[in-house]
Amino acid sequence: MNEDGPIVVAYDGSAAARASIALAGVHLVKDRKMLVLSVFQPIESVPFIGNPGVQIPDGMDDQIHAAVEKLAEEGAELGRTGGFDATGYVGPLHETVWQTIVRFADEHDASVILMGTHGRSGVKAVLLGSTASAVMHHAGRPVAVVPESYVTSS
Fold first, then answer.
1. Fold of the 7-153 domain
2. In this predicted model, what pLDDT tens digit does every residue of 76-120 receive, in sequence order?
3. What are the start-end ranges of the E strands in 58-128?
4. pLDDT digits (tens, 9 = 90+) for 59-84
């Protein structure tokens, strides 16, 4: 980990992800490099959709990729508005979203990872998992997480 490395933001467009960028503008040194990562998941990799017999319209992945590019740029614009030298990136899905985020942070020697969380617990957490929890446990660097409840209670 490089203390002077860029700030990596895992950005999915949620209110909690937007709040993580806004809080960075309040609590972190501005004019730092900010890399805003949105993860592209090809349609074939989505469980049940990639099964034989499921028809996927031609060009669907291209449309999804374009939407993810737009999402990454939206997050980067929020970062620039907050005073950061922000650039949007589309990360290709590796094994899981959390692994993609951790790998991206490692490749860029990030000083910190910022992200929102949807605050799943109980059965939802077991079935859907927690990307934020996995990133915190595997990143090997500081991770700042803004819970969705912070956004809805503010």
1. Rossmann fold (3.40.50)
2. 999 999 999 999 999 988 788 999 999 999 999 999 999 988 765
3. 85-92, 112-117
4. 888 898 899 999 999 999 999 999 99
Identify the burial level of 91 via C-beta atoms within 10 angstroms of its C-beta, where 0-12 means exposed, 13-18 middle and 19 or more buried.
buried
Q: Which long-range contacts (CB under 8 A, 24 or more apart) does 147-150 make?
A: 147/16, 147/116, 147/117, 147/119, 148/14, 148/15, 148/16, 148/116, 148/117, 148/118, 148/119, 149/119, 150/16, 150/19
Q: Would you kindly state where each structural domain of the chain is located, as residue ranges?
A: 7-153
**Stated pTM of the model:** 0.84
